[in-house]
Automatic annotation (TrEMBL):
InterPro entries: Ferritin-like_SF, RNR-like, RNR_small_fam. GO terms for biological process: deoxyribonucleotide biosynthetic process. It comes from the Eukaryota. This is Ribonucleoside-diphosphate reductase small chain. The lineage of its organism: Eukaryota, Metazoa, Ecdysozoa, Nematoda, Chromadorea. Residues 1-23 are annotated as: Disordered. Pfam families: Ribonuc_red_sm. It comes from Toxocara canis (Canine roundworm).
Length: 128
């Protein structure tokens, strides 16, 4: 049956769009998937080239996302040790607890994002 399906003209012209689909049995069946409606799967010779910027709104979102993170070279941390040494024990205790609260809260947020990402995003997105 599969040879009969594969011999039709439609499937001969579209072999690169054939993907295996796992059925409920032991055998897998190749089915044709139409990628013409999906922009992420379309052939694009300049897929990994970002300039010239084609979608300015997406580029703006990307730049805002990059700007929301900091890197160690942006902040001078050379005086932090001396500042820490000048604190008394109560101030060190307070700062340590505040920082541990933020670290734990950030971990909880990240766990929630991962659970959302694995359940929602990974099945629907294809990376170029």
């Amino acid at each position: 049956l599969l040879n009969t399906i594969m011999s039709t003209d439609k499937f001969q012209d579209d072999k690169e769009n054939m993907e295996p689909e796992m059925g409920s049995g032991d055998a897998s069946v190749a089915v044709a998937i139409d990628h013409s409606d999906e922009p992420l799967l379309a052939e694009n010779p300049s897929r990994f080239v970002i300039f010239p910027i084609k979608y300015h709104d997406i580029w703006t979102f990307y730049k805002n996302a990059v700007a929301s993170f900091w890197t160690a070279d942006e902040i001078d941390l050379s005086h932090d040790y001396a500042d820490w040494e000048r604190l008394d024990d109560g101030e060190r205790f307070f700062i340590s607890r505040v920082l541990s609260f933020f670290a734990a809260s950030d971990g909880i947020v990240n766990e929630n994002l991962v659970s959302l990402r694995t359940g929602l995003f990974t099945e629907s997105l294809v990376y170029p």
